[in-house]
Design a protein that fits this description.
2 strands; single chain; rod-shaped; 243 residues; mainly alpha; 3% strand
């Protein structure tokens, strides 16, 4: 105001520039701080998602191991019951499923093989971090569009496998019912030869065992695909951490 009274235009210009510069720098600093906080929060989210993915990979591996054991036992039971090998592939509405290679079952004296119908492991997927960033709007903090798409596609795949596993559980339930009708419980202490004799005399138990074998093979195929997705996503997140 003093400069205006004195009509000191040079001072007025200088003061105006200083005022505008100060406001501009203040806004820039505030924006920089906000951006830094968002980047730090995004890094936390990605680190937590990576830990969730690591947990998923362990769960997938355990599920594949149990399902592989189930296929191996069922393959041995059906062969012992019929003398015929199960097919190397089968056709589903969405295409041909090639049966994964499984080890030959050798523990023929194990009297707990009936547990193959009740020992079922499924993949739930640890999505606590993903649900948090969706529910809080934190999804916008992930600036890498390709990485964001990869994360979203992964969790879509996790959701889709649940339908396959619901089908597997229903097939196992039908097989257990067939055994019950034959007077057998999965927890009965019978080895491979003893249980195969029961299955050979019961067409429903034989048919349902084959169905469980097939749906387990489909589960393993999908789990292997999901594991590849999980590995690729984990690697991408680790790569994004590099300066």
């Amino acid at each position: 105001s003093q400069s205006l009274k004195e009509q000191n235009w040079t001072a007025i210009v200088i003061e105006f520039v200083l005022l505008v510069s100060g406001v501009f720098l203040g806004i820039q600093v505030a924006n920089w701080n906000d951006s830094r906080k968002e980047n730090m929060q995004a890094a936390v989210y990605l680190n937590n998602i990576a830990e969730d993915i690591r947990s998923d990979i362990n769960e997938i591996d355990e599920t594949i191991a149990i399902s592989t054991w189930r296929m191996s036992v069922l393959d041995a039971l059906v062969f012992k019951s019929t003398g015929e090998r199960l097919p190397a592939s089968f056709t589903l509405p969405f295409g041909v499923v090639h049966v994964p290679k499984i080890p030959t079952y050798t523990d023929i004296d194990n009297k707990s093989v009936g547990l193959v119908y009740v020992n079922i492991r499924t993949i739930d997927g640890n999505r606590s971090t993903y649900d948090t960033i969706i529910n809080t709007g934190g999804i916008r903090l992930i600036k890498d569009a390709k990485l964001l798409e990869q994360i979203q596609n992964y969790y879509v795949a996790v959701d889709e496998i649940k339908d396959t596993e619901i089908y597997l559980q229903a097939n196992c339930e039908s097989a257990r019912e067939a055994l019950h009708e034959a007077g057998i419980s999965p927890v009965d202490r019978k080895n491979l030869a003893e249980l195969s004799e029961v299955i050979a005399r019961n067409p429903k138990a034989l048919a349902s065992s084959k169905t469980v074998w097939g749906s387990t093979g489909n589960q393993i195929k999908i789990l292997n695909d999901l594991r590849q997705q999980a590995n690729a996503l984990f690697a991408h997140i680790q790569e994004s951490k590099k300066p």
